[in-house]
Amino acid sequence: MKRTIFLTICSLFISLFSFGQTSTEQFETESHGSASFTDNGVIFNIISHVGIFDIQGNYPGTGWNGTGNDNRYIDNSNDTASPPSFSIKTTSNLFKVNRFWIYLSALNLDLAVAGTLTVTGKLSGVTKFTQTKTTGFTTSTASSNGYTLIDLTNLNGQNYSNIIIDQLQITLGGNYRYAGLDAFTWVKDSGIVLSTNETVSSKKAMSIYPNPTNGPISITTEDNNARAELYSQDGKLLKGLEMKKGTNEADLSELPNGVYILKTSSGSSKIIKK
């Protein structure tokens, strides 16, 4: 079967997995009614799929910043469209999600109704993970102002906090018709934010051809005794490649269709290409 594989080259001097900057957006400085917010220099769009979601700032003390009540958050106030669904998405950075707090209820804010929450992470429109939580929701405002902690380091027994995405989608099910999301804690993945063919510095060049590939690739480098490492998008090392100066041949036919990261040691160069 014909395979399509897309590679990204980057320097070992630019860590794809360790330069993350953790930040928590509490929405307190955002404008009421806004369909976007900015945190740690990154602009996120609030995309409404079913219902209308935006920044809520009209009801002080009804949010939850992780330790106490606060004034602003994302919600779908009084919107009857069902099942409610929205995304937090950015096109300027890739990111990972650690956790967030969410109020889930009927439209009258009754927390005692039964429902589900589906959390989906996507990258370039491709689903990287999805999980549906069915139990363990807060049922009283006496605890965390009615908000439930969604911890992606242990969501249904799985850790999704290390998966790089550009879109987090939230979908309600069952009798849940209202959602208020606050204290969005995420990690800025600063290692792969450059646009296609953008260069950080390039004293020595490295290139791959063809890209995308069906398996065979040619890697050209100006370095002697260079090494390349192939990673999946979730950071798993798949194979190492020893290279010499000039053109080196490799075959990736054993890999399934997808996007992979070729992480290279290239002397003083720091190049990122998609």
Explain this structure.
This protein is mainly beta. 0% of the residues lie in helices and 49% in strands. The protein has strands at 5-11, 21-25, 36-39, 42-50, 54-56, 63-64, 69-70, 73-75, 85-89, 94-105, 115-123, 126-133, 147-151, 167-174, 178-189, 199-201, 206-209, 216-221, 226-231, 237-243, 246-251, 258-264, 270-271. The strands form 6 sheets. Strands 2, 5, 8, 10, 13 and 15 form a 6-stranded antiparallel β-sheet that branches. A 6-stranded antiparallel β-sheet has the order 3-4-9-14-11-12, with no helix packed on it. β3 (36-39) and β4 form a beta hairpin. Residues 9-19, 191-203 and 267-274 have low confidence and may be disordered.
Task: Write the topology of this structure.
Blueprint: E1 5-11, E2 21-25, E3 36-39, E4 42-50, E5 54-56, E6 63-64, E7 69-70, E8 73-75, E9 85-89, E10 94-105, E11 115-123, E12 126-133, E13 147-151, E14 167-174, E15 178-189, E16 199-201, E17 206-209, E18 216-221, E19 226-231, E20 237-243, E21 246-251, E22 258-264, E23 270-271
Parallel strand pairs: 1-22
Antiparallel strand pairs: 2-15, 3-4, 4-9, 5-8, 6-7, 8-15, 9-14, 10-13, 10-15, 11-12, 11-14, 16-23, 17-18, 18-21, 19-20, 19-22
